[in-house]
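The freezer alarm interrupted the setup, so I double-checked each line after restarting. Inputs confirmed:
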Amino acid sequence: MAATKPTVDKRRIILDAAVRVFARQGFHTCRVSDIADEAGVAYGLVYHYFGSKDEVLDTLFLERWGLLVEAIAEIDRRDVPARDKLHAVASFIVDSYRHDPELMKVIIVEVTRAANSFGAAHLDTISDAYRQIQGIVEKAQANGEFRTTVTAQFAAMAFYGAIEQVLTGWIFGLLEQGEDSYERAKDHVVETVCRGLETYTPAP
Amino acid sequence: MAATKPTVDKRRIILDAAVRVFARQGFHTCRVSDIADEAGVAYGLVYHYFGSKDEVLDTLFLERWGLLVEAIAEIDRRDVPARDKLHAVASFIVDSYRHDPELMKVIIVEVTRAANSFGAAHLDTISDAYRQIQGIVEKAQANGEFRTTVTAQFAAMAFYGAIEQVLTGWIFGLLEQGEDSYERAKDHVVETVCRGLETYTPAP
DNA sequence: GCCCGGGTTGACTGACGAGTCAATCCGTGG
DNA sequence: CCACGGATTGACTCGTCAGTCAACCCGGGC
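Predicted 3D structure, all chains:
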């Protein structure tokens, strides 16, 4: 049975080290040995747990994106106005960044926005999230909360794009950061995008 | 003087070939020899005109981004409402894509969104565009066209992010394309983002 | 005490591709 | 007709890693 199990989970250690290395040097510019060094393990051990360098990034991405998709699905099931749902989605993404900026940086920079290399392989998984947001908008359009002048598909892309660009701004130091900024960002994205989608907006 | 000038501009031919190759295979996955082959010139000639593989991409990016920044500056000088200015900016970007999808794909995928590799080097140039959009919003806020609840910097990022995400959707076949879609996209981005920014929105 | 097997090690290999360079071509001026 | 020099050629070099593998370590079962 479970022989040699009490040892710490080296696989996890390698994954965590990879996040730091990818965030610092980028996937393409780092060597597998950098990951091993950062993790404090031998080079070969990386290949004991992962089939290739790519698989390390794949694993990180799928782990995290799975959580996102799951979270959006749960949010969509709530019985609240679309605006609140979208606020919750924005909230989840922003909080993901707040909780682990390095991991989010890696996922956005190396996968989500790297549509030629990794994005291509995961395009379908990535668009799962887009489709879910689209679903939220569609329902809101059906029940009259949102106007139908803009297609749901388009609105979803605009919404997600706005958030991702803001995260990118943080990641590269173009936008002011801090607890306040994070909270404001959630409101602002929704304020900006939803107000444009809603059927009626009271004058301020 | 101008010896051997009548020959076609090989430099240009190489650049154009590079666009096709980068768009098809991606910058990292293509070889310099692929560019040379596509251009129908010898391998070494690429190095006669460019110092490195990177410099080819740099050149393509700077050429095009320069036009964008210039265009936004010109638009900003016009004496029209902010909404119209932003519509013109969206228009310019969408038309750039319509006019040369491959070049725009390369610029977005390999530079603008590749913040670790090339984006890093050009971060400043890239954000020139963001800053200009920010300027348009700031003026609109100053003269009361736009509300000040959302910072201009933030609005600029959201606006640009929304457009870029839509282009990305086209690039990877996630969003329906065609003349109609392009025209609608311009209106929709502005409709979506500006409506959320304006001080007063008439009921639909 | 001894064997078994999975965890762990790190030196080594093989492929690949950016960049070099000496040779060749060819238009122009004298 | 020749010499000059920039344009053009493509075979070759050289460094860099991703991935392999044979050996080693060590806990558990017998």
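Quick read of the result. Residues 3-4, 7, 10, 36, 41-45, 48 of chain A lie near DNA strand C (CB under 10 Å from a C1').
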